[in-house]
Amino acid sequence: MDQYLYKCHYCGKDYKPKRRHKQKYCCNSCRVNAFNFRTKKDERNVAKVSTRPKLNEKKEGISLAGIGNATIANLTTDLAKIIFTRKENKPATKGDIQTLLNGSKERYLPVSNLPVRNDGALPFYDTVTKEMIFRVQFPKVTFPSKLI
C-alpha cells in the first residue's frame, strides 16, 4: 500500500488511500457528491451546448438588405399593376362606393355601356324611378351679352 497522502478530488482534503491507485476521493460522501456535481453540471452544459449555434451554421435573421430588397420588390409590383391595369378593370375605392350610396344630386345618370339609339337619344338611368330611359340631348345655346 502507499505510504504517502493523496488529495481528495472533491473536497481537497489529504487522506491515506485504502486501495492502490483506484481511490480518488477521501470517503463515499465525497465520491457521491462529486458524481452528482458532474451530472448536474453536464445537464446544464447539454442545454447550453444544444442552444449554441454550430460554427458551420448560418444564423438566420432579418437584415437591412433583405428589408430593402422586399420593399423594392413590392413597390415594383404595385407600380406594374397601376401601369398595366386598364381603368375599367381597376377596383372601386371607398370614395366611389360612398358617392354611389349617397347618391348624386343629379336625377339622370349617363350610362356609358349602352349604345346610342337610332334617333340619337342617349341612355340614362333615372335614380328616382330606378329605370333606364333614353333622352335626346339638345346643345346648349348661349347668346352674346350685347344682344340681350
| Low confidence ranges | 47-51
What number of structural domains do the residues give?
2
* Computed structural class: alpha+beta
Number of helices: 3
- Helicity, as a percent range: 25-40%
Radius of gyration: 46 Å
In summary, what is this structure?
36% of the residues lie in helices and 11% in strands. It is an alpha+beta fold and 148 residues long. It has a three-stranded antiparallel sheet with strand order 3-4-5, with no helix packed on it.
Structure, described:
This protein has two domains: 46 residues, no CATH class; 68 residues, no CATH class. With 148 residues, it is an alpha+beta fold. The chain is rod-shaped, with a radius of gyration of 46 Å. Helices cover 36% and strands 11% of the residues. β1 and β2 form a beta hairpin.
Q: Which secondary structure elements does this structure contain, and how are they paired or packed?
A:
Blueprint: E1 6-7, E2 14-15, H1 28-51, H2 64-84, H3 94-102, E3 108-110, E4 122-126, E5 131-135
Task: For the structure shown, list the relevant keywords.
3 helices, about 150 residues, three-stranded antiparallel beta sheet, about 10% strand, rod-shaped, alpha+beta, 5 strands
